[in-house]
């Protein structure tokens, strides 16, 4: 066992040890270095964490390929024909076999991009003077981290003035039906597929399930989405979820609502998913997307005085403090809001707090989020369900995308912009954008929400004509109340 009491040249510097090198961990490391601390990141998988290696980056890269396929759907309506017409064929008649997807090539690109992103993060941390230790870490009390290095070398003990726990979460599996990486898959195992599945069953219609079901459907796969709830995306804006489910069905996806999967087993040439009501759905592969479990067990947290919720999430306050003095936590292991952007913000806030920099507590309602389906669903601020549950006064207007001139030119039909505002103060409380690239369009509404702008502030700003963002100003204009 090697004990490391201090690293780096400055013996007076605060020693920070970060457990987990995902967005929560590596963003914190950069801030802590900038604030003069000695920083060590302990990571068992690779820098960038699950966000970069298995979750956000791979899924969004796969979706980029799927998106390309979806945009070809609109091409015919715009007068585009694929293939070279043969001699004597009618104008516009295609003789080419059409477009096909080489999943092995798509997945190779996905994995290469994830690895490159991880290497970039490692290089950045190295440049900034952050020490990285590849291995499995655990707390030994609140101020000491013990690391089992990946290469089998002796354990390393790191003494710390403060520890940040940012260990993320791992995929939940169906009870009694462990993933085998071949036919029964978690989202981390999809990128080993060399060919498109013949028939993919996606269990779970949360954000992960909806994104993958939409992507594989666009890539040409026969997809069945098993949804335990009344509708897909139960936690999202009801109009957006309803629209997306309609789009899914119109593209040939089978959506089984109110259908809870009880288990999955391999058959001679595929899988059979049994539903709680006795039905059986057969397919070639099943993707299990039923949520995630925080990676907080067995790493000495409770022994160090860190309180966990019954679900295993670390209890934190708005500046990322846990119940143990000197131990902070960020990201999916806290269950505050499982998004990479939130993990990174929690990590930065933790370091600002512990190192005595100016710090603003996290404001979850200001978080912008996006579901990368086609169309995308972007949200920020208060949702309609939250406003109703709190009995808040609000006014709302929705403008369908089909009324936007740019959308008409681009051949886009499915989508809308919706804003919520306070009826008297006219302050923008929240918004929903359902549209291709909604992730890019939500930003003006995010600015409005975080700076407490009014609908008139939004309406008075110029937008380009013609542009999709013109609908945001237009919907704000529709919420204007004339002065009495
Ligand atoms: C399929 C999918 C798609 C997603 N897409 C998006 C998206 O588009 N946008 C978005 O904002 N969010 C997205 N998310 C959510 C996002 O991935 C998470 O919110 C984010 O990864 C959380 O970051 P983190 O730092 O908390 O944890 P992680 O990224 O999970 O990193 C934690 C790291 O800690 C390591 N670790 C765990 N235990 C130990 C230990 N004992 N010792 C050493 N290392 C350890 C893990 O191996 C991991 O590498 C997606 C999630 C999924 C599942
Ligand atoms: N684009 C993004 O930013 C993005 C993408 C993916 C995930 N995420 C983050 O990850 C979080 C978790 O999302 P998720 O979809 O992985 O998990 P989730 O917990 O939100 O959804 C899982 C769904 O599976 C259903 N389910 C559970 N057991 C089932 C069963 N046996 N049969 C059928 N359905 C079952 C649940 O009712 C739930 O609707 C999201 O809230 C989001 O913050 C973000």
UniProtKB/TrEMBL annotation:
FAD/NAD(P)-binding domain: residues covered: 15-347
Coiled-coil boundaries: none
Keywords from the named record: FAD, Flavoprotein
Cofactor(s) needed by this chain: FAD
Domain named Pyridine nucleotide-disulphide oxidoreductase dimerisation: residues: 368-474
Transmembrane segments: none
UniProt entry tagged with the keyword Flavoprotein: yes
Biological source species: Luteimicrobium album
Pfam family, one: Pyr_redox_dim
Family stated for the protein in its record: Belongs to the class-I pyridine nucleotide-disulfide oxidoreductase family.
Name the record gives this protein: NAD(P)H-quinone dehydrogenase
